[in-house]
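Checklist before submission:
- one chain only
- standard amino acids only
- sequence pasted in full

Submission:
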Amino acid sequence: MHELALCESVLDIIVGESRKQGFARVKQVWLEVGEMAGVELQAMEFSFDVVTRGSIVESAALNILQIPGSAWCMQCSKNVAVRQRFDACPDCGSYQLQINGGDEMRIKELEVE
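Returned file contents:
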């Protein structure tokens, strides 16, 4: 379950920012998670609760915003929506796609005190 490691990294980033910016408690966390990032959202939510116990993020609400997948079709010369890697272009059926969105994960926003 790599979601546990992802949550540990998120916590490390938040704790580092709390030292820089001087906040003592996090009330809400917004994460952007790409549809093709390979992250199981329920496992992420469970792991977040486990990892943040006893930290400045304990009891913070986790809000996950799922980012849709997109790719550049070399055949059509346009951006198309995709749900997973190795999908065919929904317009022309080509498999010559270059993923350009929906495979990322990032902290979008924090609500802090």
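Reviewer check: The two ends are 31 Å apart (CA to CA).
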